Amino acid sequence: MDLLSEYTHKSRQIKDRLNLFKRFYTEDAVWAYSNGSLVLVPSKANANERLFEEMCFCILAANGTAVSSMKAVEASRHILMEGSVAEIQAALRSSGVRFHNRAEYIVYNRENLKKDYGFDIKGLVESYPDRFGLRNYLALYIKGFGYKEASHFLRNIGISGLAILDKHILRSMHELGIIPDVPKSLARRRYLETEQAYLDMSRSLKIDPDELDLLLWSIKNGQILK
């Protein structure tokens, strides 16, 4: 795997995608699946509604694909804020999502965020001075999140420097000799140890960790998505 050659070829696309994540956090826009790609489109939703939608995307993306999860979000977008478990389940089913119990997670998190934070998700995000503390809290607080999903969410709203240790990244790390095997699951301690190995690899390659994630993903899947 010639990472540096691949990076030279794809670095502009990767940087552009990471810039879109930052734009998503600051602009009135949501993601949409269009012409085989994920793009930002204007939205009248407020910041907290958009952040909740991204949270739902990351819950749905666990054990799924970015494309199928985006299609599921688009199918349920009109009811994410007020819909019942049954209504959201039906929308997810219509989009082809296998894990219909994720509708329960969505409603549970929505109501908890209303009760505990007045649904001020942006305020919650900005109340933490460091990304590691914020990730730790989200991994514990958000149903359907672990460290991987919390890292995914934070990267997708423009917060950098965290490893999203999904199966594709872990397989790449194993193939590159960075880790001895591909773990079936990652408890907190092993996640943090493996993340450190990933960050060390990033420094060794002189490739930003967020850029390296999208690079490895694109090598495995042929696309630069989210």
Domain count: 2
Strand content of the residues, in percent? 5-15%
Low-confidence stretches: none
Which class of secondary structure composition applies to the elements? Answer: mainly alpha
Write the layout of secondary structure elements.
Layout: H1 3-26, E1 29-34, E2 37-42, H2 47-61, H3 66-76, H4 85-95, H5 102-117, H6 121-126, H7 131-141, H8 147-156, H9 167-175, H10 188-205, H11 209-221
Antiparallel strand pairs: 1-2
What report would you give on this structure?
The protein has 226 residues and is mainly alpha-helical. It has helices spanning 3-26, 47-61, 66-76, 85-95, 102-117, 121-126, 131-141, 147-156, 167-175, 188-205, 209-221; strands at residues 29-34, 37-42. 33% of the residues are buried.
Question: Quick gist of this model?
Answer:
This protein is mainly alpha-helical. The protein has eleven helices and two strands.
Top keywords for this entry?
226 residues; mainly alpha; Endonuclease III, domain 1; Endonuclease Iii, domain 2; two-stranded antiparallel sheet; 2 strands
